[in-house]
Automatic annotation (TrEMBL):
This is Uncharacterized protein. The lineage of its organism: Bacteria, Bacillati, Bacillota, Bacilli, Bacillales.
Length: 68
């Protein structure tokens, strides 16, 4: 996850961006899925889908810094 220019909080629930002259295509749902997999590798008990869906703003901030 190193070198990722966007924080987790930025990519949550974003739709796919098509390529333009200024940037490449970005598949945000796929990037979010990679983050979820990484969280489950790092966290001792992982995150259930329900926990992930119900994470609050404080939890999002913690997840933002978790993969640094």
């Amino acid at each position: 996850m190193s070198g990722n220019q966007y924080k987790f909080s930025f990519l949550i629930s974003r739709e796919k961006w098509e390529a333009t002259e200024e940037r490449a295509e970005v598949d945000w749902p796929k990037v979010e899925a990679f983050h979820k997999e990484a969280f489950n590798l790092v966290l001792v008990e992982g995150l259930t889908e329900e926990e992930y869906e119900n994470v609050d703003e404080k939890g999002i901030k913690e997840l933002d810094g978790l993969l640094k």
